[in-house]
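Hey, quick one: can you model this chain's 3D structure?
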Amino acid sequence: MKMLALVFTVLLLSACEKADFSDTEGAGYRYADFDGKWRIVNYWATWCGPCIKEIPELNELAHEYNDSLVVLGVNFDSPQGEEAQISVKKMKIEFPVYAVNPAGELGITTPEVLPTTFVFSPDGALHRTLIGPQTRESLLAALE
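Sure thing. Here's the predicted structure for all 144 residues.
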């Protein structure tokens, strides 16, 4: 019985860990949960034609390789609340989108050209910065 109580307490405490960031839907995420996975952080905007064109490629990559990488989005215009959710739906994005621009916490500069994609290695270090629209193939090549 004591062992069951201990296991329950450990599970409860681990569930209470504070999220490192939230997405536009209010879900919280911890960077530690991404350890060992590539992270693709894509800056986009609803008015950016090339961004609109590459979103299906990012969606495909996020679904197909979810065991080895995570795709995260950043709305360049930084809308808040319902406006942020509407933008994500309009773009048909199927991966988490940061609620707040993560540039400072990721050690990057907010890009001046869209789309821009930052590729972080499984150990969390910035691996590549890709400017312009990407395809599934160009993103997979950037992981090498």
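One thing worth noting: The helical segments are 2-15, 49-64, 81-91, 103-106, 136-142.
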